[in-house]
Amino acid sequence: MKILRRLCLLCGVLLFQSVHADIPVQREDSCVVIDTELSQMKDDRLIVDFQLNQPGAYVVQLVHTPEDAGTELAASALVCGQPVGGDLKREAWIEEGIVSTFTSPVTFPEVGKYSVAIECGVKPTKVRIIPKVYWQSRITPGSEKYYNEWIKMHESPEKQAAMEWYKNARFGMFIHWGIYSQAAGRWQGVKIEDSGIKGPGVAEWLMFTFNISREDYREFARQFNPDKSFAQNIAKLAKDTGMKYVVITSKHHDGFALFDSAVSEWDVADATPYDGDLIKELYEACRAEGLDFGVYYSHGHDWMEGCDADYANVKKKNDRYNVPTRPNGKNLWDPSPNEYQDYLEGKAYPQIAELIELMPDLRLIWFDGEGLISEAEAFRFYKMIYEMNPNIVVNRRVGYEYGDYMDAGDNTTPQAGELVAKYFETCGTANHSWGFKEYDHDWKTPNQLLRNFVDIISKGGNYLLNIGPDGKGRVPEPCAESFLEMGEWVKTNADAVYGTTRWTRFSENVNPAKNAKSVPGEFWFSAKDNKVYAMSITPAPETVRIESLGTASGTVTSVRLLGSDADLKWKQTAAALEIDFTNIKTDDNGFVVEASLGQSEEE
Questions:
Q1: How confident is the model at residue 228 (pLDDT cuts 50, 70, 90)?
Q2: For 569-600, what is each residue's pLDDT tens digit?
Q3: Residues 571, 589: contact at Cβ < 8 Å?
Q4: Which residues partner with 391 through β-bridges?
Q5: What are the angstrom distances between the C-alpha of 46 and each of 75, 119, 122?
Q6: How does strand 531-536 pair with strand 591-597?
Q7: Which residues contact 567 (CB under 8 A, 6 or more apart)?
């Protein structure tokens, strides 16, 4: 009741828990899209009502046709009578028009009916309520033109079965590997951080950050000749780390394909001395180890054969309406002479088809570098994959939020209020670079990696943890050692990881600060059926207290230490579940308690 009273004071409206058929309802992708033709005007304000089914932080967006947008656009918004702060910022084009965003997020604390009042010089065609995490990650949901067709494919039995596999897998290996691995973070003796050109200081962006010409960059391919043992070694490392799937860069932004492509000679078969197909070899090695397989593919950026990523054309259109055009990731120093559409039709679409045909059991395509592709182009990638193999999962970076799941951003785990209906993944590095950088020795410890992992597991997501092999395909030893130590924890405590979901609480007593030191008393939770798993990443003290498992959580009927047959002595009080760990030794990287629950006292 306290929450409801505070909410009424904030909004000045009554919230309803039921879904109202006469107003727009939050969609499956967590967005609300309101057609203003169906909304009312009151006191020169456009009043739009909607039903929100997932509380959290959102931003308010307006969509105007180009003809109506003009050069200046002033507007204000009220959510439940409260002003929405921040500027109205032009963001992007979609097929329905120009999207502008009020830059201060709004928090909706409960499920229910809300209203937004818009005062604008020109009436928008659409009002959109978009999760804050989408906006922060530069995710621009597309127009309704493609949504119904996309959702039909996404919710098909085949795709949902594929998503069940993905949700249960939980832990995968990301591999950033290519001819840039030969350079190891340097060009002509200069470190990438000292290039003098603004750009990411990660090894795989070498060509961009030094503005290396296409011809000079080809020299790396002429020297690229990995060890034949790379596939078996990497597959075994993934297996020993407790991972269930592997995703490798089949083509990064430099356009170089690690597989034998019939539509481009800029690949391992034609441009290097290596005799073989690296993608197929790793695929077969992973399948032999019982691991599933996916590929990363940079579809929007291709610095070798993708001209300027259509930058000049898009910028010319955007400049007319003050829509920003980001040059980052576009080859503006030595673009190929072909048209961007020729690149898409002649290379990007065909190579995706080649990868699907090459690997019948391909599980995932991890797109990146969507750049300036259009909504229609992004949707075409998704639809083509579905029609060729509906069992393949696609990530959201295909563009315009048409993927099957979302990533929270590089090395980023969403906070509680940022979780959306779409399943999420966090991809992360073991040091600072994704590709191999020989002088980056700032390796995360196994405990730091586990801290990231249990946080992600507690929130119901997947962890895609990266390695950057050198030019020969060798994984740096400190990285491999940390993975193997992490793997011991994962294998011992697999019941708390695989096939689990979020519990009613994510954690207790956890320091949320970045790189916080792990201390006793911190717990993260996951759940499966009537079992709750309390995950710690420090050794157990003599008495372990888990406050979230007091009697209000339900009656604890049994307690088990994963990976042990020790007979635990325990008692449950209103304040906590207390467990006696006297003479029971746990690992330096912690332990997991499984508690079976009956009904709570409140039921």
A1: very high
A2: 999 999 999 999 999 999 999 999 999 998 65
A3: no
A4: none
A5: 11, 6, 11
A6: antiparallel
A7: none
What is the pairing mode between strands 40-42 and 45-52?
antiparallel
Residue whose C-alpha is closest to residue 384's, from 360, 350, 346: 350
Q: Are 251 and 351 in contact (CB under 8 A)?
A: yes
> What's the rounded Cα separation, in Å, for the pair 231 and 292?
14
* CA atoms in the 13 A half-sphere facing the CB of 325: 19
User: pLDDT value at position 71?
Assistant: 61
For the chain, give the longest Cα–Cα distance: 76
Segment (H or E) for 391: none
Sign of CA dihedral 95, 97, 98, 101: negative
Helices 446-458 and 477-492, interaxial angle, to 10°?
A: 50
Q: What are phi and psi of 41, to 5 degrees?
A: -105, 140
Confidence of residue 101 (pLDDT cuts 50, 70, 90): very high
Who contacts 47 (Cβ-Cβ below 8 Å, separation ≥6)? 39, 40, 41, 115, 116, 117
Give the span between the Cα atoms of 512 and 532, in whole angstroms: 22
Token pair of 472, please?
A: 């020969």
* φ, ψ of residue 467 in degrees (nearest 5): -125, 155
Phi then psi for residue 244, to 5 deg, are -110, -15
Q: What is the dihedral of CA 488, 492, 496, 500, to 10 degrees?
A: 80
In 273-309, which positions are buried (b, 16+ CB within 10 angstroms) versus exposed (e)?
A: ebeebbbbbbbbbbeebebbbbbbbbbbbbbbbbbbb
Give residue-wise pLDDT tens across range 1-11: 233 223 332 34
CA dihedral defined by 559, 600, 495, 168, rounded to 10 degrees? 180
| Type of residue numbered 573 | T
Q: Kindly report, residue by residue over 419-435, the tens digit of the pLDDT.
A: 788 899 999 999 999 99
* Distance between CA atoms of residues 153 and 164, nearest Å: 15
Tokens read off for 180? 């840039």
